[in-house]
Amino acid sequence: DGGITQSPKYLFRKEGQNVTLSCEQNLNHDAMYWYRQDPGQGLRLIYYSQIVNDFQKGDIAEGYSVSREKKESFPLTVTSAQKNPTAFYLCASSSWTDPDTQYFGPGTRLLVL
Amino acid sequence: GENVEQHPSTLSVQEGDSAVIKCTYSDSASNYFPWYKQELGKRPQLIIDIRSNVGEKKDQRIAVTLNKTAKHFSLHITETQPEDSAVYFCAAVAGGGADGLTFGKGTHLIIQP
Q1: In terms of DSSP H, where are the helices of A1-113?
Q2: Are A42 and B6 a contacting pair at CB < 8 A?
Q3: Backbone phi, then psi, for A38, in 5-degree steps?
Q4: How many whole angstroms from its chain centre is CA A61?
Q5: CB contact under 8 A, B104 and A103
Q6: pLDDT tens for residues A89-99?
Q7: What is the rounded distance in angstroms from the CA atom of residue B2 to the CA atom of residue B99?
Q8: CB B22 within 8 Å of CB B7
Q9: A105: chain B residues, CB-CB within 8 Å
Q10: Interface test with A, best of B10, B21, B101, B108 (most A CBs within 10 A)
Q11: What contacts A48, CB < 8 A, 6 or more positions away?
Q12: Which of A63, B21, B61, B70 is most buried per CB count within 10 Å?
């Protein structure tokens, strides 16, 4: 998990604004994931990508978008269509040799002004 | 899709006693069940996992049991210590395809001195 970085640590969004959260990994992992965590809730899957240039919607994809142009990078954009974006966002990755075991980044806390 | 229920939401035990957290899942195709520990403001850390071809796995003071017929699995922590205080999440996935995990809502474990 030490090879996954997320930035920024805190992010503030104004009404109607799109913001992008960064996730980078140097573990040579093939699959990457984005989860959202709200207080009192478990982690919920937003999007995931198993290979470059391909990604799938998770359980709560509405109001979010992603891209996977490079193996090591999987940025998440929170669009203005996401009406309740305040949450802790966690990125994770896994390797093809052990696809089930996911390692998490340190997270980005998004707050709405 | 998969649904994971986790109980209790809060568990308080005396230091040195045992703690048990239980989860149930709905998708009979699920075959990988990890447990994560999350300290306040930090990333989830994988502490133990089990696959559907075994019924129990142990790692020092931590053990996990799985009952495939009943679709439930449990985390057991023995000889609890203050550093065990955290939020614990169970998860499930029909593994092998690098799909996202479905998490329970978490258990806040409090170790009383």
Answers
A1: none
A2: yes
A3: -110, 155
A4: 11
A5: no
A6: 999 999 988 88
A7: 12
A8: yes
A9: 43
A10: B101
A11: A31, A32, A33, A34, A55, A56, A58, B98, B99, B100
A12: B21
As to burial, measured by CB atoms within 10 angstroms (0-12 exposed, 13-18 middle, 19+ buried), residue B81 is exposed
Place of tokens 């891209």: A67
Report the distance separating Cα B86 and Cα B77, nearest Å.
12
Instruction: Show the tokens assigned to B39.
Output: 């300290």
DSSP-derived 3-state class of residue B4: strand
Q: Please tell me the predicted confidence (pLDDT) of residue A2.
A: 54
Asked if A94's CB is within 8 angstroms of B100's CB, the reply is no
Buried b (16+ CB within 10 A) or exposed e, A68-105: beeebebbbebeeebeebebbbbbbbbeeeebbebbbb
Residue A83 has a pLDDT of: 87
pLDDT digits (tens, 9 = 90+) for A51-103: 999 999 999 999 999 999 999 999 999 998 888 999 999 999 999 888 889 99
State the Cα angle at A99 between A94 and A103, rounded to 5°: 30
Q: How far apart are CA A55 and CA A34, in angstroms?
A: 11
Using CB atoms, which residue from A43, A50, A106 is nearest to B98? A50
Residues B99, A32 contacting (CB under 8 angstroms): no
A94 touches chain B (CB under 8 A): yes
Q: Which tens digits make up the pLDDT trace of B26-52?
A: 999 999 999 999 999 899 999 999 998
- Which strand (E) or helix (H) includes residue B21? strand B19-25
